[in-house]
Write a structure and sequence with these properties.
Blueprint: H1 14-17, H2 19-47, E1 53-58, E2 61-66, H3 67-84, H4 98-120, E3 123-124, H5 127-156, E4 163-169, H6 171-183, E5 189-196, E6 202-205, E7 208-211, H7 219-226, E8 230-233, H8 243-250, E9 257-260, E10 272-277, E11 280-285, H9 292-327, E12 333-339, E13 345-351, H10 358-366, E14 372-373, E15 378-379, H11 388-395, H12 403-409, E16 413-415, H13 422-425, E17 441-443, H14 445-448, H15 456-468, H16 472-486
Parallel strand pairs: 4-5, 4-8, 8-9, 16-17
Antiparallel strand pairs: 1-2, 1-3, 6-7, 10-11, 12-13, 14-15
Length: 494
Protein backbone atom coordinates (compact mmCIF):
# COMPACT_ATOMS: atom_id res chain seq x y z
CA UNK A 1 0.00 0.00 0.00
CA UNK A 2 1.15 3.48 -0.68
CA UNK A 3 -0.07 5.40 2.32
CA UNK A 4 2.63 7.28 4.20
CA UNK A 5 3.57 6.08 7.59
CA UNK A 6 3.41 9.47 9.25
CA UNK A 7 0.23 11.22 10.34
CA UNK A 8 0.88 14.10 7.94
CA UNK A 9 -0.02 12.86 4.45
CA UNK A 10 1.50 14.53 1.45
CA UNK A 11 -0.83 16.72 -0.63
CA UNK A 12 -0.45 15.94 -4.36
CA UNK A 13 1.06 18.43 -6.75
CA UNK A 14 -1.19 19.95 -9.48
CA UNK A 15 0.45 17.60 -11.99
CA UNK A 16 -0.46 14.57 -9.87
CA UNK A 17 -3.98 15.87 -9.28
CA UNK A 18 -4.71 16.33 -13.01
CA UNK A 19 -3.58 12.89 -14.12
CA UNK A 20 -7.07 11.90 -15.32
CA UNK A 21 -7.27 14.78 -17.78
CA UNK A 22 -3.75 14.22 -19.09
CA UNK A 23 -4.30 10.48 -19.50
CA UNK A 24 -7.60 11.08 -21.35
CA UNK A 25 -5.81 13.48 -23.73
CA UNK A 26 -3.23 10.81 -24.51
CA UNK A 27 -5.98 8.31 -25.26
CA UNK A 28 -7.68 10.91 -27.45
CA UNK A 29 -4.50 11.47 -29.46
CA UNK A 30 -3.71 7.78 -29.95
CA UNK A 31 -7.33 6.97 -30.81
CA UNK A 32 -7.21 9.62 -33.53
CA UNK A 33 -3.91 8.34 -34.94
CA UNK A 34 -5.20 4.75 -34.93
CA UNK A 35 -8.43 5.66 -36.73
CA UNK A 36 -6.62 7.75 -39.36
CA UNK A 37 -4.28 4.85 -40.02
CA UNK A 38 -7.08 2.25 -40.11
CA UNK A 39 -9.72 4.15 -42.10
CA UNK A 40 -7.43 5.70 -44.71
CA UNK A 41 -5.43 2.47 -44.83
CA UNK A 42 -8.61 0.52 -45.58
CA UNK A 43 -9.46 3.01 -48.33
CA UNK A 44 -6.04 2.64 -49.93
CA UNK A 45 -6.17 -1.16 -49.68
CA UNK A 46 -9.63 -1.32 -51.25
CA UNK A 47 -9.44 1.48 -53.84
CA UNK A 48 -5.77 2.32 -54.20
CA UNK A 49 -4.40 5.85 -53.94
CA UNK A 50 -6.57 7.33 -56.65
CA UNK A 51 -9.48 9.73 -56.18
CA UNK A 52 -12.51 7.39 -56.08
CA UNK A 53 -15.98 8.86 -55.63
CA UNK A 54 -18.83 7.63 -53.47
CA UNK A 55 -22.16 7.68 -55.39
CA UNK A 56 -25.24 9.31 -53.87
CA UNK A 57 -28.56 8.74 -55.66
CA UNK A 58 -30.87 11.75 -55.40
CA UNK A 59 -34.06 10.88 -57.29
CA UNK A 60 -33.11 10.95 -61.00
CA UNK A 61 -29.62 12.37 -60.65
CA UNK A 62 -26.44 11.07 -59.11
CA UNK A 63 -23.92 13.19 -57.23
CA UNK A 64 -20.51 12.09 -56.01
CA UNK A 65 -18.38 12.66 -52.90
CA UNK A 66 -14.73 11.73 -52.75
CA UNK A 67 -13.88 8.80 -50.50
CA UNK A 68 -11.11 10.95 -49.04
CA UNK A 69 -13.78 13.26 -47.63
CA UNK A 70 -15.95 10.33 -46.53
CA UNK A 71 -12.99 8.75 -44.71
CA UNK A 72 -12.21 12.00 -42.93
CA UNK A 73 -15.86 12.31 -41.82
CA UNK A 74 -15.84 8.64 -40.70
CA UNK A 75 -12.77 9.26 -38.52
CA UNK A 76 -14.44 12.28 -36.88
CA UNK A 77 -17.70 10.38 -36.32
CA UNK A 78 -15.80 7.45 -34.85
CA UNK A 79 -13.94 9.76 -32.46
CA UNK A 80 -17.26 11.37 -31.52
CA UNK A 81 -18.84 7.97 -30.83
CA UNK A 82 -15.95 6.97 -28.55
CA UNK A 83 -16.41 10.24 -26.63
CA UNK A 84 -20.19 9.92 -26.34
CA UNK A 85 -19.91 6.53 -24.70
CA UNK A 86 -17.26 7.81 -22.22
CA UNK A 87 -14.67 5.25 -23.28
CA UNK A 88 -11.91 7.50 -21.92
CA UNK A 89 -13.54 8.12 -18.52
CA UNK A 90 -11.38 7.55 -15.48
CA UNK A 91 -14.20 5.38 -14.12
CA UNK A 92 -13.48 2.63 -16.68
CA UNK A 93 -9.77 2.94 -17.50
CA UNK A 94 -7.09 0.86 -15.86
CA UNK A 95 -9.06 -2.20 -14.76
CA UNK A 96 -11.81 -4.52 -15.91
CA UNK A 97 -13.23 -5.00 -19.39
CA UNK A 98 -15.69 -2.08 -19.46
CA UNK A 99 -13.29 0.16 -21.37
CA UNK A 100 -12.80 -2.41 -24.13
CA UNK A 101 -16.52 -3.23 -24.27
CA UNK A 102 -17.35 0.45 -24.72
CA UNK A 103 -14.83 0.81 -27.54
CA UNK A 104 -16.32 -2.18 -29.37
CA UNK A 105 -19.91 -1.11 -28.64
CA UNK A 106 -19.39 2.46 -29.90
CA UNK A 107 -17.69 1.20 -33.06
CA UNK A 108 -20.34 -1.40 -33.92
CA UNK A 109 -23.17 1.06 -33.18
CA UNK A 110 -21.61 3.71 -35.40
CA UNK A 111 -21.22 1.35 -38.34
CA UNK A 112 -24.76 0.14 -37.81
CA UNK A 113 -26.04 3.71 -38.14
CA UNK A 114 -23.86 4.21 -41.23
CA UNK A 115 -25.35 1.10 -42.85
CA UNK A 116 -28.91 2.23 -42.06
CA UNK A 117 -28.19 5.79 -43.20
CA UNK A 118 -26.62 4.59 -46.43
CA UNK A 119 -29.68 2.48 -47.17
CA UNK A 120 -32.19 5.22 -46.42
CA UNK A 121 -30.25 7.93 -48.28
CA UNK A 122 -29.37 5.63 -51.17
CA UNK A 123 -25.64 6.06 -50.70
CA UNK A 124 -23.46 3.38 -52.31
CA UNK A 125 -20.70 2.69 -49.79
CA UNK A 126 -18.28 -0.09 -50.66
CA UNK A 127 -18.96 -2.99 -48.28
CA UNK A 128 -15.38 -4.24 -48.41
CA UNK A 129 -14.08 -0.85 -47.31
CA UNK A 130 -16.36 -0.93 -44.24
CA UNK A 131 -15.70 -4.61 -43.53
CA UNK A 132 -11.97 -3.90 -43.40
CA UNK A 133 -12.29 -0.74 -41.30
CA UNK A 134 -14.61 -2.01 -38.54
CA UNK A 135 -12.89 -5.18 -37.24
CA UNK A 136 -9.35 -3.89 -37.72
CA UNK A 137 -10.32 -0.58 -36.12
CA UNK A 138 -11.76 -2.32 -33.05
CA UNK A 139 -8.78 -4.66 -32.71
CA UNK A 140 -6.16 -1.92 -33.03
CA UNK A 141 -8.06 0.47 -30.73
CA UNK A 142 -8.38 -2.21 -28.05
CA UNK A 143 -4.72 -3.21 -28.44
CA UNK A 144 -3.51 0.39 -28.08
CA UNK A 145 -5.78 0.87 -25.07
CA UNK A 146 -4.30 -2.32 -23.60
CA UNK A 147 -0.79 -0.95 -24.16
CA UNK A 148 -1.74 2.27 -22.39
CA UNK A 149 -3.16 0.20 -19.55
CA UNK A 150 0.18 -1.59 -19.11
CA UNK A 151 1.85 1.82 -18.96
CA UNK A 152 -0.74 2.98 -16.42
CA UNK A 153 -0.32 -0.13 -14.26
CA UNK A 154 3.47 0.37 -14.24
CA UNK A 155 3.02 3.94 -13.01
CA UNK A 156 0.43 2.88 -10.44
CA UNK A 157 2.96 0.46 -8.98
CA UNK A 158 5.02 3.59 -8.29
CA UNK A 159 2.06 5.34 -6.58
CA UNK A 160 1.24 7.49 -9.58
CA UNK A 161 -1.91 7.90 -11.68
CA UNK A 162 -4.20 6.61 -8.92
CA UNK A 163 -7.23 7.97 -7.11
CA UNK A 164 -6.34 9.22 -3.63
CA UNK A 165 -8.82 7.52 -1.33
CA UNK A 166 -9.98 8.59 2.13
CA UNK A 167 -11.70 5.73 3.96
CA UNK A 168 -14.58 6.53 6.33
CA UNK A 169 -16.10 3.95 8.68
CA UNK A 170 -15.40 1.67 11.59
CA UNK A 171 -11.77 0.66 12.22
CA UNK A 172 -12.46 -2.97 11.27
CA UNK A 173 -14.17 -2.11 7.97
CA UNK A 174 -11.53 0.50 7.11
CA UNK A 175 -8.77 -2.05 7.72
CA UNK A 176 -10.52 -4.69 5.60
CA UNK A 177 -11.12 -2.39 2.62
CA UNK A 178 -7.58 -0.98 2.84
CA UNK A 179 -6.21 -4.52 2.81
CA UNK A 180 -8.26 -5.48 -0.25
CA UNK A 181 -7.25 -2.34 -2.17
CA UNK A 182 -3.65 -3.06 -1.28
CA UNK A 183 -3.88 -6.44 -3.02
CA UNK A 184 -4.48 -4.82 -6.41
CA UNK A 185 -2.64 -1.49 -6.80
CA UNK A 186 -3.29 -1.76 -10.55
CA UNK A 187 -6.95 -0.92 -9.84
CA UNK A 188 -5.81 2.63 -9.15
CA UNK A 189 -7.06 3.29 -5.61
CA UNK A 190 -4.35 4.61 -3.29
CA UNK A 191 -5.47 4.89 0.33
CA UNK A 192 -4.04 8.07 1.88
CA UNK A 193 -5.85 8.22 5.20
CA UNK A 194 -8.93 7.35 7.20
CA UNK A 195 -11.62 8.86 9.39
CA UNK A 196 -12.99 6.30 11.81
CA UNK A 197 -15.77 6.03 14.35
CA UNK A 198 -13.33 5.52 17.22
CA UNK A 199 -10.29 7.34 18.51
CA UNK A 200 -6.88 6.35 17.27
CA UNK A 201 -3.88 7.76 15.43
CA UNK A 202 -3.23 4.96 12.97
CA UNK A 203 -4.29 1.50 11.81
CA UNK A 204 -1.95 -1.35 10.95
CA UNK A 205 -2.60 -2.66 7.43
CA UNK A 206 -0.33 -5.26 5.79
CA UNK A 207 2.92 -3.94 7.16
CA UNK A 208 2.31 -0.17 7.16
CA UNK A 209 0.53 2.32 9.38
CA UNK A 210 -2.53 3.98 7.85
CA UNK A 211 -2.96 7.45 9.41
CA UNK A 212 -6.30 8.16 11.10
CA UNK A 213 -7.07 11.85 10.56
CA UNK A 214 -10.04 12.19 12.88
CA UNK A 215 -13.61 11.05 13.28
CA UNK A 216 -16.48 11.03 10.84
CA UNK A 217 -17.10 14.74 11.42
CA UNK A 218 -13.57 15.56 10.23
CA UNK A 219 -13.95 14.37 6.63
CA UNK A 220 -13.66 17.89 5.14
CA UNK A 221 -10.43 18.61 7.02
CA UNK A 222 -9.03 15.18 6.11
CA UNK A 223 -9.74 15.76 2.41
CA UNK A 224 -7.93 19.10 2.57
CA UNK A 225 -4.97 17.56 4.43
CA UNK A 226 -4.54 14.59 2.09
CA UNK A 227 -5.69 15.99 -1.24
CA UNK A 228 -8.05 13.01 -1.49
CA UNK A 229 -10.28 12.98 -4.56
CA UNK A 230 -12.32 9.93 -3.53
CA UNK A 231 -14.16 9.28 -0.26
CA UNK A 232 -14.97 5.60 0.33
CA UNK A 233 -17.52 4.88 3.05
CA UNK A 234 -16.62 1.41 4.31
CA UNK A 235 -19.51 0.97 6.77
CA UNK A 236 -22.71 2.85 7.49
CA UNK A 237 -23.97 1.03 10.59
CA UNK A 238 -22.28 3.43 13.00
CA UNK A 239 -22.87 6.58 10.93
CA UNK A 240 -25.86 8.87 11.47
CA UNK A 241 -28.59 8.27 8.83
CA UNK A 242 -27.91 11.49 6.92
CA UNK A 243 -24.12 11.50 7.28
CA UNK A 244 -23.36 9.83 3.93
CA UNK A 245 -25.68 12.26 2.19
CA UNK A 246 -23.95 15.22 3.87
CA UNK A 247 -20.53 13.92 2.79
CA UNK A 248 -21.71 13.67 -0.82
CA UNK A 249 -23.07 17.22 -0.78
CA UNK A 250 -19.70 18.64 0.26
CA UNK A 251 -17.70 16.96 -2.52
CA UNK A 252 -16.73 19.02 -5.55
CA UNK A 253 -18.76 17.87 -8.54
CA UNK A 254 -16.68 16.25 -11.28
CA UNK A 255 -13.45 16.33 -9.24
CA UNK A 256 -14.25 14.41 -6.09
CA UNK A 257 -16.13 11.14 -5.88
CA UNK A 258 -18.07 9.23 -3.25
CA UNK A 259 -17.83 5.43 -3.16
CA UNK A 260 -19.81 3.07 -0.93
CA UNK A 261 -17.70 0.02 -0.20
CA UNK A 262 -19.83 -2.84 1.19
CA UNK A 263 -18.06 -5.52 3.17
CA UNK A 264 -18.34 -8.08 0.38
CA UNK A 265 -15.15 -9.02 -1.42
CA UNK A 266 -14.22 -11.29 -4.34
CA UNK A 267 -17.63 -10.91 -6.01
CA UNK A 268 -17.48 -10.24 -9.76
CA UNK A 269 -19.42 -7.47 -11.48
CA UNK A 270 -21.94 -9.67 -13.36
CA UNK A 271 -23.28 -10.94 -10.03
CA UNK A 272 -23.77 -7.45 -8.58
CA UNK A 273 -26.82 -5.40 -9.46
CA UNK A 274 -27.81 -2.07 -7.91
CA UNK A 275 -31.58 -1.64 -7.91
CA UNK A 276 -33.33 1.32 -6.28
CA UNK A 277 -36.14 0.03 -4.09
CA UNK A 278 -38.32 2.44 -2.09
CA UNK A 279 -35.62 5.06 -2.42
CA UNK A 280 -32.90 2.69 -1.18
CA UNK A 281 -29.95 1.79 -3.47
CA UNK A 282 -30.02 -1.93 -2.69
CA UNK A 283 -27.14 -4.07 -3.92
CA UNK A 284 -28.35 -7.47 -5.09
CA UNK A 285 -25.76 -10.26 -5.08
CA UNK A 286 -26.84 -13.12 -7.32
CA UNK A 287 -25.99 -16.63 -6.14
CA UNK A 288 -23.49 -18.54 -8.33
CA UNK A 289 -25.21 -20.51 -11.05
CA UNK A 290 -23.69 -23.15 -13.28
CA UNK A 291 -26.21 -23.75 -16.05
CA UNK A 292 -26.07 -26.76 -18.34
CA UNK A 293 -25.24 -24.40 -21.19
CA UNK A 294 -22.25 -22.96 -19.32
CA UNK A 295 -20.95 -26.41 -18.39
CA UNK A 296 -21.44 -27.66 -21.95
CA UNK A 297 -19.62 -24.63 -23.40
CA UNK A 298 -16.72 -25.02 -20.98
CA UNK A 299 -16.44 -28.72 -21.79
CA UNK A 300 -16.46 -28.12 -25.56
CA UNK A 301 -13.78 -25.42 -25.25
CA UNK A 302 -11.67 -27.70 -23.01
CA UNK A 303 -12.00 -30.64 -25.38
CA UNK A 304 -11.24 -28.76 -28.59
CA UNK A 305 -8.35 -26.75 -27.11
CA UNK A 306 -6.72 -29.74 -25.39
CA UNK A 307 -6.94 -31.97 -28.48
CA UNK A 308 -5.42 -29.22 -30.62
CA UNK A 309 -2.81 -28.65 -27.90
CA UNK A 310 -1.76 -32.31 -27.93
CA UNK A 311 -1.51 -32.31 -31.73
CA UNK A 312 0.49 -29.08 -31.93
CA UNK A 313 2.74 -29.91 -28.97
CA UNK A 314 3.31 -33.56 -29.89
CA UNK A 315 6.97 -32.97 -30.96
CA UNK A 316 7.66 -31.22 -27.64
CA UNK A 317 5.84 -33.94 -25.68
CA UNK A 318 7.93 -36.61 -27.40
CA UNK A 319 11.17 -34.71 -26.74
CA UNK A 320 10.35 -34.27 -23.05
CA UNK A 321 9.36 -37.91 -22.68
CA UNK A 322 12.68 -39.05 -24.16
CA UNK A 323 14.60 -36.56 -21.99
CA UNK A 324 12.95 -37.83 -18.80
CA UNK A 325 13.56 -41.46 -19.74
CA UNK A 326 17.23 -40.97 -20.56
CA UNK A 327 18.12 -38.58 -17.71
CA UNK A 328 17.11 -40.71 -14.70
CA UNK A 329 15.79 -44.12 -13.72
CA UNK A 330 12.06 -44.55 -13.46
CA UNK A 331 8.88 -44.10 -15.49
CA UNK A 332 8.32 -41.17 -17.84
CA UNK A 333 4.96 -40.23 -16.30
CA UNK A 334 4.20 -39.55 -12.67
CA UNK A 335 0.71 -40.54 -11.53
CA UNK A 336 -0.83 -39.14 -8.38
CA UNK A 337 -4.24 -39.24 -6.74
CA UNK A 338 -5.91 -35.83 -6.58
CA UNK A 339 -9.36 -34.61 -5.59
CA UNK A 340 -11.59 -33.30 -8.38
CA UNK A 341 -15.14 -32.10 -8.96
CA UNK A 342 -17.65 -33.01 -6.24
CA UNK A 343 -14.79 -34.31 -4.09
CA UNK A 344 -14.13 -37.38 -6.25
CA UNK A 345 -10.65 -38.84 -6.57
CA UNK A 346 -8.92 -39.07 -9.94
CA UNK A 347 -5.44 -39.89 -11.20
CA UNK A 348 -3.51 -36.87 -12.42
CA UNK A 349 -0.57 -37.42 -14.77
CA UNK A 350 2.46 -35.27 -15.43
CA UNK A 351 6.03 -35.81 -16.59
CA UNK A 352 8.13 -37.18 -13.75
CA UNK A 353 10.31 -34.37 -12.45
CA UNK A 354 11.52 -36.00 -9.22
CA UNK A 355 13.44 -39.08 -8.17
CA UNK A 356 11.46 -42.33 -7.98
CA UNK A 357 11.29 -42.40 -4.15
CA UNK A 358 10.20 -38.76 -3.85
CA UNK A 359 7.09 -39.61 -1.80
CA UNK A 360 9.16 -41.58 0.73
CA UNK A 361 11.43 -38.56 1.29
CA UNK A 362 8.51 -36.16 1.82
CA UNK A 363 8.06 -36.72 5.57
CA UNK A 364 11.73 -36.05 6.21
CA UNK A 365 11.70 -32.86 4.14
CA UNK A 366 8.43 -31.64 5.68
CA UNK A 367 10.15 -31.50 9.06
CA UNK A 368 12.77 -29.11 7.69
CA UNK A 369 12.40 -25.35 7.50
CA UNK A 370 10.76 -24.43 4.19
CA UNK A 371 11.29 -21.30 2.11
CA UNK A 372 8.11 -21.55 0.03
CA UNK A 373 4.55 -22.82 0.16
CA UNK A 374 2.34 -22.37 3.23
CA UNK A 375 0.86 -24.24 6.18
CA UNK A 376 -1.14 -26.58 3.92
CA UNK A 377 0.79 -26.76 0.62
CA UNK A 378 4.30 -28.22 0.84
CA UNK A 379 6.86 -26.37 -1.31
CA UNK A 380 10.63 -25.96 -1.34
CA UNK A 381 12.47 -23.68 -3.74
CA UNK A 382 15.46 -26.03 -3.92
CA UNK A 383 13.76 -29.37 -3.38
CA UNK A 384 16.56 -32.01 -3.45
CA UNK A 385 14.16 -34.59 -4.91
CA UNK A 386 13.93 -32.76 -8.25
CA UNK A 387 16.01 -34.12 -11.13
CA UNK A 388 18.06 -31.75 -13.35
CA UNK A 389 15.68 -32.09 -16.31
CA UNK A 390 12.79 -31.88 -13.87
CA UNK A 391 14.01 -28.53 -12.58
CA UNK A 392 13.94 -27.09 -16.10
CA UNK A 393 10.49 -28.53 -16.78
CA UNK A 394 9.06 -27.25 -13.50
CA UNK A 395 10.48 -23.78 -14.05
CA UNK A 396 8.40 -23.45 -17.22
CA UNK A 397 5.55 -25.77 -16.09
CA UNK A 398 6.35 -28.16 -18.95
CA UNK A 399 5.89 -31.18 -16.67
CA UNK A 400 2.18 -30.35 -16.52
CA UNK A 401 1.59 -30.77 -20.26
CA UNK A 402 0.42 -34.41 -19.95
CA UNK A 403 -2.52 -33.07 -17.94
CA UNK A 404 -4.00 -32.23 -21.34
CA UNK A 405 -4.92 -35.93 -21.42
CA UNK A 406 -6.73 -35.46 -18.09
CA UNK A 407 -8.68 -32.65 -19.71
CA UNK A 408 -9.56 -34.83 -22.71
CA UNK A 409 -10.66 -37.59 -20.31
CA UNK A 410 -12.92 -35.17 -18.43
CA UNK A 411 -11.32 -35.25 -14.97
CA UNK A 412 -9.75 -31.80 -15.33
CA UNK A 413 -10.32 -28.51 -17.11
CA UNK A 414 -7.84 -26.18 -18.77
CA UNK A 415 -8.67 -23.49 -16.18
CA UNK A 416 -9.87 -24.10 -12.65
CA UNK A 417 -8.83 -24.39 -9.00
CA UNK A 418 -5.63 -26.21 -8.17
CA UNK A 419 -6.16 -30.01 -7.90
CA UNK A 420 -5.42 -30.80 -4.22
CA UNK A 421 -4.01 -33.92 -2.60
CA UNK A 422 -6.26 -35.98 -0.28
CA UNK A 423 -3.96 -35.05 2.62
CA UNK A 424 -4.52 -31.36 1.88
CA UNK A 425 -8.30 -31.78 1.66
CA UNK A 426 -8.25 -33.35 5.14
CA UNK A 427 -7.09 -29.96 6.48
CA UNK A 428 -9.77 -27.91 4.69
CA UNK A 429 -12.28 -25.81 6.56
CA UNK A 430 -15.90 -26.42 5.55
CA UNK A 431 -16.17 -23.37 3.26
CA UNK A 432 -13.09 -24.41 1.26
CA UNK A 433 -14.98 -27.43 -0.11
CA UNK A 434 -16.85 -25.04 -2.43
CA UNK A 435 -13.83 -25.26 -4.74
CA UNK A 436 -15.09 -28.74 -5.73
CA UNK A 437 -18.11 -27.25 -7.50
CA UNK A 438 -16.00 -27.10 -10.67
CA UNK A 439 -13.28 -29.26 -12.18
CA UNK A 440 -9.68 -28.55 -11.16
CA UNK A 441 -7.54 -26.88 -13.80
CA UNK A 442 -4.10 -27.08 -15.34
CA UNK A 443 -3.87 -23.35 -14.69
CA UNK A 444 -5.91 -20.88 -12.69
CA UNK A 445 -5.91 -17.69 -10.68
CA UNK A 446 -3.49 -19.29 -8.23
CA UNK A 447 -0.88 -19.76 -10.98
CA UNK A 448 -0.98 -16.23 -12.37
CA UNK A 449 -1.06 -14.60 -8.93
CA UNK A 450 2.13 -15.81 -7.28
CA UNK A 451 1.85 -19.60 -7.19
CA UNK A 452 3.95 -21.00 -4.32
CA UNK A 453 4.60 -17.53 -2.88
CA UNK A 454 0.91 -17.26 -1.90
CA UNK A 455 -0.32 -17.73 1.64
CA UNK A 456 -2.95 -20.39 2.24
CA UNK A 457 -5.53 -17.66 2.85
CA UNK A 458 -4.79 -16.07 -0.54
CA UNK A 459 -4.81 -19.46 -2.28
CA UNK A 460 -8.27 -20.23 -0.91
CA UNK A 461 -9.52 -16.73 -1.72
CA UNK A 462 -8.42 -17.01 -5.35
CA UNK A 463 -9.85 -20.48 -5.85
CA UNK A 464 -13.22 -19.57 -4.32
CA UNK A 465 -13.29 -16.30 -6.26
CA UNK A 466 -12.90 -18.29 -9.49
CA UNK A 467 -15.63 -20.76 -8.53
CA UNK A 468 -18.06 -18.03 -7.47
CA UNK A 469 -17.51 -15.85 -10.54
CA UNK A 470 -16.73 -18.22 -13.41
CA UNK A 471 -17.18 -17.03 -16.97
CA UNK A 472 -15.69 -18.01 -20.32
CA UNK A 473 -14.07 -14.57 -20.62
CA UNK A 474 -12.37 -15.16 -17.26
CA UNK A 475 -10.95 -18.43 -18.57
CA UNK A 476 -9.63 -16.70 -21.69
CA UNK A 477 -7.98 -13.94 -19.62
CA UNK A 478 -6.36 -16.45 -17.23
CA UNK A 479 -5.09 -18.55 -20.14
CA UNK A 480 -3.48 -15.50 -21.76
CA UNK A 481 -1.83 -14.47 -18.49
CA UNK A 482 -0.56 -17.99 -17.81
CA UNK A 483 2.10 -17.75 -20.51
CA UNK A 484 3.63 -14.77 -18.75
CA UNK A 485 3.31 -16.42 -15.33
CA UNK A 486 5.08 -19.67 -16.23
CA UNK A 487 8.21 -17.87 -17.42
CA UNK A 488 8.42 -16.01 -14.11
CA UNK A 489 11.01 -17.92 -12.06
CA UNK A 490 9.33 -17.22 -8.72
CA UNK A 491 7.41 -20.13 -7.28
CA UNK A 492 6.08 -23.26 -8.88
CA UNK A 493 2.57 -24.39 -9.55
CA UNK A 494 2.86 -28.03 -8.45
Amino acid sequence: MSAPASAQPVVPTPKQANWRRRYARRLLLTDFLVLVWVVFGAQIVWFGTGNVDLAIHEDARISAVSYWIFSAVLVLLWMWALSLIDSRSDRVIGTGTTEYVRVASASITLFGFIAIGAFLLKVEVARGYLLISLPIGILVLVFVRWMWRQWLIAHRSMNEYSARVLLVGSPDSVTQIARELDRTPSAGYRVVGACTTSNGRSLSVRGFELPVLGGIDDVDAAIAATGADTVAVTSTDELPPDKVKQISWRLEAGKQHLVLAPSIVDIAGPRLHTRPVAGLPLIHVETPRFSKGQLFLKRIVDLVASVLGVIILSPLLAFLAISVRLSSDGPVLFRQTRIGIRGKEFTMVKFRSMVVNAEELLDKLAAQQRDAGNEVLFKMRNDPRITPIGRIMRKFSLDELPQLFNVIGGSMSLVGPRPPLPSEVAQYADHVHRRFLVKPGITGLWQISGRSTLSWEDTVRLDLSYVENWSLLTDVAITMKTVRAVVDPQGTAH
